[in-house]
Amino acid sequence: SFTLYEKTPQGNLLRIQADNLNQPFDINSQARLDLGSTSKLRTLVTYLEIIARLHADYRALDTKALTQKAQPQRNVLAQWVAARLLANRNEPLAAMLDAAMARSYSASPEPFFTGGGLHHFANFDAKDNSRVMDVWEATRNSVNLVYIRMMRDIVRHYASSTPGATARILDDASNPLRDTYLARFVDQEGRVFINRFYQRHKKLTPAQMADDLYARTHLNPRRFTSVFRYLEPQADFNTYVAALHKQVPASASLAPRVLESLYKTHAPEAYDLADRGYITQIHPLELWVVKTLRATPKTDLAALYESGSGVRLEVYDWLFKTSRKNAQDIRIQSLLEVEAFDSLLADWKRVGYPFDNITPSYATAIGSSGDRPAALAELMSILVNEGVRVPMVSVTGLHFAARTPYDTHLSMKPPKGERLMPAEVAQTVRRALAMVVEGGTAARLAGALKTADGQPLTIGGKTGTGDHRFERYGKGGQLLESRVVNRTATFAFYLGDRYFGTLTALVPGEQAGQFGFTSSLTAQILKTLLPQLQPHLYPQPPA
């Protein structure tokens, strides 16, 4: 799928839209695709916009306030901007953005706690693993770990900017807001588990539900007794013994006094639900879901959510104890991260991101949230128009009933631009994208197009490769299933100061597993097309 736009006083005019898919489906604007490292373009724009906003906000602060902002903190971007303005109160935005691009990041792999769990990321080129580089170089060569760390800085900035003073919540174990965040976490995670257990048991009979739990006690008399006494609180001693001997045959050798002790020790009132889950080694919410469904089989998921609010708090009571501060911090940080990604999503949607949700993980910096080529073209239009959004135009006018008394012309009103970012941000991003073509992942396009006077034209862009797979893992990280969904290669580009667009290659479905191309494919296709486009874009004088 290939699209090409031209910047004109009438707006961004669509000059080419073509693909070789013989179906009424537009690859360019009707799918959510994994477009890989093109997400680094969005991440870079966000990074520089944050620097620009901080520059504007902090220039008005006095020295005392700036000094406080420059102290070490989780929001390293705010700290860095404050320190630079302390050294030079009159530093212009363009100079600060250049300095931001010169900030260094490690490209070394390490575990990152994000998206509610521990994640590992890899660089495309393993030679980068032990290196430290600036943002210019990381963008030119599309280095994943640098952008993961940049996204971490962005997320921490957003988290620190949310109401509630993130740093104080995490540092102060007595902060009352901690309980608010923990209650939210308990409700969210508890609902996840309740849904999982409901889906597992909803089609079983009451007897089958109980047998499923009994089987997972692994013939352990103590664990079986704890489950049985919870599910059957009214059962007398003889009924219990009969059930125990049936489910745990080896228990027939137990002395009567041992059986009596087990029966009394695990009485319904002996343990709270959390402790019973620990004894049985079965999640306490699963015990509760099974007991509820056995008592009222027609209970639906919504009713379980509503009636289980107090149960969820009971199960997670341990989490509210201040001696568990580290466990609390991990969960609070997960919620703060989700809030930060909500702010990031708002910023991305402002510059054309087409979806209403985003993956709350650092992996969004390298493509986990998906995108559309048409949305990338819109972002490129903002950059080409110096940070101003103007309409993307496919129809400039309509002419009805020509040469009749009803002859009617309809034409567009002159477009009004909307400034979305400082011009300096757009200019800095374009320079970074030009380096991608000059000597980076799209180097084969260098010099591929010439101006009207025969000089090499500046071309810039961002490449991206998407290898979208569905994978299911078992305990210990064992891969149980791997299914290819699709494979993509994308190049979002600009050609000089007038033209821009996208070129995308997509192989959908399982056949994608037979292909091994990267984004160099789309760069090569564009290189092949440019000689045919040269006479139409920048006509050369006759020899």
Protein described:
The protein is of the alpha+beta class and 543 residues long. Helix content is 47%, strand content 15%. The strands form five sheets. The chain has a six-stranded mixed beta sheet, sandwiched between helices. It has a two-stranded antiparallel sheet with strand order 3-6. The protein is elongated. The two termini are 34 Å apart.
Describe the protein's topology.
Elements lengths: L1 E7 L2 E8 L20 H20 L4 H7 L6 H12 L5 H9 L2 E3 L5 E3 L2 E3 L12 E3 H7 L2 H18 L4 H6 L5 H25 L4 H10 L5 H11 L5 H11 L8 H10 L7 H8 L3 H12 L5 H7 L1 H7 L9 H26 L22 H12 L3 E2 L2 E2 L3 E4 L7 E4 L6 E2 L3 H17 L19 E15 L5 E17 L3 E10 L11 H18 L6
Parallel strand pairs: 2-8
Antiparallel strand pairs: 1-2, 1-14, 3-6, 4-5, 7-11, 9-10, 12-13, 13-14
Name the poorly predicted regions.
none
Overall average residue pLDDT:
91
Distance between the termini: 34 Å
For the largest beta sheet, what order do the strands appear in spatially?
8-2-1-14-13-12
Q: Taking Cα atoms only, what radius of gyration do you get, to the nearest Å?
A: 30 Å
Q: Tell me the fraction of residues in β-strands, as a range.
A: 15-25%
Count of runs of 4 or more consecutive helical residues: 20
Shape: elongated
Compute the number of strand runs.
14
Structural classification = alpha+beta
Helix proportion range: 40-55%
| Major pleated sheet | 6 strands, mixed
Features of the shown structure:
single chain; 543 residues; alpha+beta; six-stranded mixed beta sheet; two-stranded antiparallel ribbon; 20 helices; 14 strands
Write a brief caption for the model.
The chain has 543 residues and is an alpha+beta fold.
